[in-house]
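Students often ask why we bother encoding 3D structure as a string. The short answer is that it lets us treat folding as translation between two languages. Here is a chain of 395 residues written in the first language.
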Amino acid sequence: MAGMTSTARPYLNRRLAEFGTTIFAEMSALATATGAINLGQGFPDTDGPEEIREAAVRALRDGRGNQYPPGPGVPELRHAISAHQRHRYGLAYDPDTEVLVTAGATEAIAATLLALVEPGDEVVALEPYYDSYAASIAMAGGRRVPVTLRPDGDRFRLDLDELRAAVTDRTRLLLINTPHNPTGTVLTREELAAIAELAVERDLLVVTDEVYEHLVFDDAEHLPLAGFPGMRDRTVTIGSAGKTFSFTGWKVGWVTAAPALVSAVRSAKQYLTYVSAGPFQYAVAEALALPDSYFDGFRRDMLARRDILTTGLAEAGFGVFRPAGTYFVTTDIRPLGEKDGFAFCRALPERAGVVAVPNAVFYDDREAGAPFVRFAFCKKPEVLQEATDRLRRMA
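And here it is in the second language, the structure alphabet:
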């Protein structure tokens, strides 16, 4: 046939064959097509602090970052990340050798896994997982080994025995996410201590995604895994400005780790974007230096929005897992007489004028995630109220 090559081999690398368009793109397109309220993709509908936006404008006008910034990130931001880790958690990182700025947390995840994982290595990851984890492990040639967080009352819990059983002689690293997207679980001190003990005992690296570190609610507390005994030199911690300052389009993330680990990650990162977000790096440096009152106010504001959404979802008949962190809430659709999250989410825009995301896309075991659906509450209170009113009417 004209235009066909002489080989039947598919164009897409076989490691990525299982990955199509992300569910976020699909559901956001559905929201646009139907005019539905988009509570699927996790981006705020308002910008972050005006003074930080103005800091980016100032950097642009002053010519700071308009050309290639330094490969590891601009010094101002690396120093600000180091100061943030010391102030918040008492963790000391050398801004010159232990901090690396990335194109958002997504690149940090990809670069870290490409750097540290070789073909055949096993990566133990908490399931459900953010979808880029699976793709990055696949690109590195690794094998993902999911450990499933399971419903227990109004939260999802980690089975530490299952985690230990998942580790084999082929395990290269543990991939941990706390506060956890999409379940909203925040791992406890006891759980983190057990993970640390396992990593030390089995001599494992740990990659820990902590992008929601400033969004913990009620009695939950965010504790960086790197601060536990034996973990400082074996942990790669990933952070992000987008979730904390509501500028997700700026794509500014970072890695903090021991020099040898940062050097490895940088070796991979330099062939992905090389550098990015020049002027925004200067603005994020100022953002990280905001007083504690900003972070406290941000948390209170998101807590109020969480409560609007969780209350409304419960009144609409959903089973609600009250999140202790992040800006997502996972629901169970079985009380509504539904069991297929994909079908439910694809029909919801027409039925109720609301978009959500089926959690099954975050699972290897699709059946385990089938009845769960995720909503985002990083939206204006009036938007959340309107969405829950629509869902009540549907119910």
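Translate back mentally: The first strand starts at residue 37 and ends at 38. Keep this in mind for the problem set.
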